[in-house]
Design a protein that fits this description.
By secondary structure, the chain is mostly helical. It folds into two domains: about 160 residues, UbiA prenyltransferase (Tetracycline Repressor, domain 2), CATH 1.10.357; about 130 residues. About 70% of the residues lie in helices and about 0% in strands.
């Protein structure tokens, strides 16, 4: 039962909420206990909020998911958990979030409200509209970063925010590409919007998004504000890790036909794991 509930909550997807820590990493407060605990508290709120969204999405999409070669094994479409039980769990999470928000600043509350509203609109409307679906996913990641800045009251560079937006778009487009591949090979038709995409179109979009990520991040590292805040120009040397990470992800999607599950790649591919570790270590070494 515990395993089934954890699958319902999509615990492996909580890794996406680590974007909340981005402003902390670049705020010069990473090793300040109060700042870290505050952001960690915010991270937990986003984890519960994202689980609520996943539950509602699974309830709404249960019929379509039952025809998908992988999603059919999820707790709701497989019948392991009833709709009533799933919604009850979601209600409990809502109650916990309301209590936790009492200890967080108002701007963060606005952010988590925007996150939940966006994802509800995505579930019922946006995911059926071509392009708006991937932009909605990207907006969700951007909200996480903005919320991470609000919760500790720090400013965030516009270049860093743009980098987040484009990397989110990149991941969303790669997901659509993988879903198209799966649909073509195994006839897994769980998204109506896929009929409006093609492998060639998503490939072109991913190339544009990948280039935008690299350019925006490189400009962030050499911007006058970044050099002034950190007192160094060495942040440019973290760019190769970003470039390699993007290229490695593209390799896994195009050559190994992975990418439908972003979180799985990030926690199972050794080269991606090492790239992230080396990137964060280098950031800490240069900045702190």
């Amino acid at each position: 039962m515990i395993r089934t509930v954890s699958q319902l909550l999509r615990l492996t997807q909580w890794i996406k909420n680590l974007f909340v820590f981005v402003p902390l990493l670049f705020s010069l407060h990473l090793f300040h206990q109060n700042y870290f605990l505050t952001v960690f508290f915010a991270f937990i709120v986003f984890c519960f909020a994202s689980s609520i969204v996943y539950i509602i999405n699974d309830v709404v999409d249960r019929e379509a998911d039952s025809q998908h070669p992988v999603k059919k094994n999820r707790p709701i479409p497989s019948g392991k958990i009833s709709i009533k039980a799933a919604l009850s769990i979601a209600a409990i999470l809502v109650s916990i979030i309301i209590i936790m928000l009492y200890f967080l600043p108002m701007m963060f509350i606005y952010s988590i409200t925007a996150f939940l509203s966006l994802n509800l609109f995505y579930t019922f409307v946006f995911k059926h509209i071509v392009l708006l679906d991937i932009f909605s996913i990207a907006a969700g990641f951007s909200i996480r970063v903005i919320a991470g800045a609000f919760v500790i009251n720090v400013e965030i560079s516009n270049w860093l925010l743009l980098t987040t937006m484009f990397i989110s778009l990149f991941l969303a487009v790669m997901k659509r590409y993988s879903e198209l591949n799966l649909q073509n090979s195994e006839a897994g038709k769980s998204r109506k919007v896929l009929s409006q995409y093609s492998l060639e179109f998503t490939s072109q979009l991913s190339t544009v998004a990948a280039a935008a990520v690299i350019i925006c991040y490189a400009l962030y590292t050499v911007s006058a504000r970044t050099v002034s805040v950190f007192g160094t120009e060495y942040l440019i040397y973290t760019t190769p890790f970003v470039v390699f990470g993007i290229f490695r992800y593209m390799f896994l999607v195009y050559m190994n036909h992975e990418g439908e599950n972003t979180s799985k790649i990030m926690i199972t591919d050794l080269q991606m794991i090492l790239t992230v570790i080396l990137y964060i270590t280098t950031i800490v070494f240069i900045v702190y």
